[in-house]
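Structure first, sequence second, as always.
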């Protein structure tokens, strides 16, 4: 039984027309939460055992899979989660825990995985669909979708070295500067800058459309809590709250 809480019932027809409303919010939405063993998220050693995954058959013989997770950056403390799409991370920033990176980042990364597979002779490519990735700089609860940053993954695929790709995956950090800058045709920044020390909720999602219609979506959120002493206790409390919110917002 699939939750469509990424976009609530009254918005389905509006989204099909390519419009967004400021009252919609990205909240955890997936078909299953668990291992995605084929995912590397574009790196090595990135955990893939606790992932929000949505997989749907589209156009008959094409399976579209989109997945997201949040994990520690390099040797920073491992994230926990509530088993239902909400990850718990500590606040702050560094150069990888043990200085593994030349770039400063938050203690955690967000990861994505998108794939199309054909059956019975179908030969789909990612560029057959529109993939938009949403991300959040606002630590407030349930940031409206219209206030999220948007990366046009399909545009990036088309100008890349592999326009016929069937799989794209990567791991990013909200403190990376390009996420705060508009790139016309490719990225719409959410405005302002990300504060890695801010405690609160950060929303992420991927929307897949075909000919203007939403055909699949996945979403997760990251609850950032003070490091290190209160993280576990605060996370346990958030788990109960987020579970209650999901029960209220699920369609079926």
């Amino acid at each position: 039984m699939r939750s469509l809480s990424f976009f609530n019932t009254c918005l389905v027809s509006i989204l099909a027309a390519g419009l967004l409303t400021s009252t919609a919010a990205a909240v955890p939405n997936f078909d299953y939460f668990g291992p995605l063993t084929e995912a590397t998220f574009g790196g090595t050693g990135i955990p893939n055992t606790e992932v929000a995954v949505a997989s749907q058959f589209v156009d008959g013989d094409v399976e579209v899979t989109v997945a997201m997770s949040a994990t520690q950056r390099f040797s920073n403390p491992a994230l926990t989660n509530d088993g239902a799409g909400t990850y718990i991370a500590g606040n702050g920033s560094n150069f990888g825990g043990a200085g593994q990176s030349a770039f400063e980042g938050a203690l955690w990364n967000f990861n994505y995985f998108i794939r199309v597979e054909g059956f019975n002779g179908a030969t789909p490519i990612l560029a057959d669909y529109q993939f938009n990735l949403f991300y959040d700089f606002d630590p407030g609860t349930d940031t409206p979708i219209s206030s999220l940053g948007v990366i046009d993954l399909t545009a990036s695929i088309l100008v890349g070295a592999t326009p016929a790709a069937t799989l794209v995956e990567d791991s990013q950090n909200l403190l990376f500067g390009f996420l705060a800058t508009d790139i016309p045709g490719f990225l719409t920044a959410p405005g302002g800058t990300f504060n890695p020390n801010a405690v609160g909720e950060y929303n992420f999602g991927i929307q897949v459309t075909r000919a203007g219609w939403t055909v699949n979506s996945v979403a997760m959120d990251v609850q950032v809590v003070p490091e290190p002493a209160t993280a576990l206790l605060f996370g346990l409390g958030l788990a109960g709250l987020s579970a209650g919110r999901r029960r209220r917002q699920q369609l079926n």
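Margin note: Confidence is low (pLDDT under 50) at residues 1-23, 242-252.
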